[in-house]
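Go through this chain.

——
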Amino acid sequence: MNGLAFLIPIALGLGLLGLGAFFWSLRQGQFEDLDGAALRIFVEDEEEPS
């Protein structure tokens, strides 16, 4: 029973930490352009004239 009194607050704290990190990444715009990086592989780079 002593183990549960120790592990439950740690689990709740880690869950809240993960939820806070998720909401922080939403505010920073991390999930704004989901398709941009996936489609960037199809764009050919223009060669610069030498």
About this structure: The chain has a mean pLDDT of 88. The two ends are 74 Å apart (CA to CA). The chain is about 60% helix and 0% strand.
